[in-house]
Specification:
Length: about 120
C-alpha cells in the first residue's frame, strides 16, 4: 500500500487488479488482492492470462519426455560453455551470438535458447 501511495495511485479509484500466479499476490486471506479489496471492494481480481498461459507452456515442456530431453540438452550445452571462461571465449570467436540459458519461469527464454542454438 505504501508503494501505491508513493506512486500517487489511489486504491479508491481502482476498478480491477491482476497479478502473476505467485500465491502471495492473489491470496484470499493475506494476499495483495485481499488488502486492496479491504480498502476498495469494487477492485475485482482477475488472474493474469499472460502469466497463466506462460505456466501452461512451461508445464507442457516438463511432461513430454521428448521436450524434457530437448530442453535438457539445450541447458547442458549452455552449462558446458558457461562453466569455463576459456570455452565461452572460444565459442564467442566462432559464433555470432552467444548461447542462452533456458529459464523455467519464462516460456520466452525457451524460445531464445532454442533460437540461439538453431542458428549454429
Amino acid at each position: 500500500m505504501s508503494k501505491l501511495d508513493a506512486d500517487g495511485l489511489r486504491v479508491e479509484d481502482c476498478c480491477g487488479q491482476t497479478y502473476d500466479n505467485a500465491a502471495v499476490m492473489p491470496g484470499r486471506r493475506t494476499g495483495v488482492q485481499t488488502r486492496i479489496r479491504e480498502k476498495n471492494p469494487r477492485a475485482l481480481y482477475v488472474p493474469c492470462n499472460s502469466h497463466s498461459l506462460n505456466l501452461v507452456g512451461v508445464h507442457a515442456a516438463h511432461v513430454d519426455p521428448v521436450m524434457v530431453t530437448f530442453f535438457g540438452t539445450i541447458e547442458r550445452i549452455f552449462t558446458y560453455f558457461a562453466s569455463s571462461i576459456h570455452r565461452w571465449e572460444v565459442m564467442k570467436q566462432h559464433l555470432e551470438l552467444a548461447i542462452k540459458r533456458d529459464c523455467d519461469t519464462r516460456w520466452s527464454s525457451k524460445s531464445d535458447a532454442v533460437e540461439a542454438n538453431a542458428n549454429r
